[in-house]
User: What shape does this take?
Amino acid sequence: MRSWQVFQASEVLREIEEATPEPVGSEVIVSVSHCGLCHSDITLWKGIFDMGEKMVSIDSIGMKHPLTLGHEIFGTVTAIGPEATGVEIGDRRLVYPWLGCGECDACRANQENLCMQGKPLGMRRPGGFGSHVVVPHSRYLIDIGDLDPALAATYACSGLTAYSAVRKAMPARPDEAIVVVGAGGLGLSGIVILKALGHENIVVVDVSEDKLETARNAGAHTTVLSVGEDVTRRMVDAVGRPVRTIIDFVNNSETVAFSFPALARGGRIIMVGMFGGQITIPTMRMAQGGLSLIGSITGSLQELRDLVDLAKSGKLAAIPYEYVPKSKINDAMARLHEGRVKGRIVLQEEMA
Assistant: This one.
């Protein structure tokens, strides 16, 4: 098998040839045909998490190089272990990558994405930047029917993360404004999911007019350019009143700083993005305003199944995406790192 691996932080990925793994127990081997490229891959490639008060290296939390990244995975089953059931060689499947330990309270509540001992594909297990991945059980494989496999691959993280965040924003009246901060791949996913669920008042905030145009094409009803001063006032003016729900797909010091003062009483910010930073929150206002700051990390296996069902229903529009051959992965990583991508890049395995 081939894989493109990170040997040193921020260095170009190296193409490696190694033995294709053999499945044991309930394991399933999936030959990767499509793998979405995610900002999380850039963070792991750089090797540093911005935790606000300090910078934390991935090595310090047990993530050792070399790393085979990639967690938005679609492919074909090529081998199954002797205890694997419910899947056959040749099946084409979307892979749920957010694997837990299977034993903790979060896992037993079917929230493996919240497992403290989790070993997600593309992070703590080799991922879709390789030609093959080892999936520990067939329950993590989802039949997408007739959906486009490249688009479906993005559902495993971008789509799922946005879907889980949107579900946390519910219930909300269809005409009640929901503010989406960030019009990158995650934000665009949030827009089309809100529309698919029947929402009719989506306000999108971004620093790029080009991305706001893309957001409007995806279904945003109102947009706000978040450059200069008075971003909070412009958000409130766009909504027509203080805001009850903000979904922050950027989630850095700047976006939370202009979002928090825009909240109405009972308002909430659903904090999704991992661009890092910190903010000082007035505790009295939190209590007096009945405000909520809600973290949202990826999503559960059932939420991914629900998202795929929504896509199968025909209600979920496609976000912009483009194919890039996996052999051009370093160019694709550079473009994403520099902010030169509209929507998502999907790495495609070249035909032999």
About this structure: The radius of gyration is 20 Å. Residues 2-143+320-348 form a domain with the Quinone Oxidoreductase; Chain A, domain 1 fold (CATH 3.90.180.10). The chain has a mean pLDDT of 96.
